[in-house]
Design goal:
The protein is mainly beta and 74 residues long. The protein is 0% helix and 42% strand.
Length: 74
């Protein structure tokens, strides 16, 4: 199961959003009920959101795991 802010790559085309397979997006929200699903945002090269989609776990794979940075105290 992915978590919020993880990067995921689509395993299949998303014709409704006009995107091919292999597009990378960021998980905005994780749902567990009634079935596992993810709200994923896809952005262009300038960081502008171009689409959001609800995707099932079998439609995506992990591209990168979000790792929050820890602030250093001087």
């Amino acid at each position: 199961m992915f978590k919020e802010l993880d990067g995921v790559k689509t395993l299949q085309a998303l014709p409704a959003e006009g995107m091919a397979a292999g597009i990378v997006g960021v998980v905005l929200e994780v749902f567990t009920q009634p079935t596992p699903a993810y709200l994923v945002e896809f952005s262009d090269a300038d960081g502008e959101a171009i689409a959001t989609a609800f995707l099932m776990p079998e439609q995506v794979e992990l591209a990168w795991a979000f790792e929050p940075t820890r602030s250093r105290q001087a």
